[in-house]
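Anyone up for a design puzzle?
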């Protein structure tokens, strides 16, 4: 109905119950796309907490279970959700992928695609800060490379700094500290080269 988009948003406990009742975590992926499309015009917009609950219910189980590239329906739903709630999605989804055991190849590829194509600039910075909070591993290097790729494509801010100075300092410090452990890693060498290229005026 036309009045649905303007209906009051449920509070978090109600939302959790609604998600369980609708079985959103296991609903067919075409229905997932339609549900995310319905979310976008909601007014007022969902709170950060409510959006994080939905991100967990809609996507977390599906993404962590990936053993092959995500379907076009799943990517369409993620892209739709990211267009308005990328920050809550990162808080839930990225954290789980980073802390997951094993290589998680498909999860890492998906995360790189979100960084490169879907997330807003402030959410890309959030992804970088989340990556730098966990021990650096070979599977995370492509994510950092994707973040730097966004910095190259994004227009610089008026001060000429794409990343906040404290975040850039942390990135450089992490790379310096981890260099001995990645002495034979081609991906690490490419990452260092990218940092020196993008931030040559800030890195001494």
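Challenge accepted. My sequence:
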């Amino acid at each position: 109905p036309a009045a649905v988009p303007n209906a009051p948003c449920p509070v978090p406990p109600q939302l959790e119950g609604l998600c369980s009742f609708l079985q959103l975590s296991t609903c067919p992926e075409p229905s997932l796309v339609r549900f995310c499309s319905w979310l976008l015009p909601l007014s007022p917009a969902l709170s950060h907490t409510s959006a994080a609950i939905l991100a967990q219910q809609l996507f977390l189980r599906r993404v962590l279970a990936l053993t092959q590239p995500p379907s076009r329906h799943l990517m369409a739903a993620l892209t739709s959700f990211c267009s308005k709630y990328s920050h809550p999605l990162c808080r839930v989804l990225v954290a789980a992928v980073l802390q997951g055991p094993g290589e998680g190849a498909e999860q890492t590829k998906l995360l790189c695609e979100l960084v490169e194509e879907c997330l807003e600039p402030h959410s890309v910075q959030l992804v970088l800060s989340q990556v730098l909070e966990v021990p650096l591993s070979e599977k995370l290097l492509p994510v950092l490379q994707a973040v730097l790729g966004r910095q190259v494509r994004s227009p610089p801010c008026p001060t000429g700094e794409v990343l906040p100075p404290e975040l850039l300092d942390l990135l450089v410090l992490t790379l310096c500290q981890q260099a001995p452990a990645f002495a034979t890693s081609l991906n690490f060498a490419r990452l260092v080269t990218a940092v020196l290229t993008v931030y040559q005026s800030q890195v001494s």
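A detail worth pointing out: The first helix runs from residue 12 to 22.
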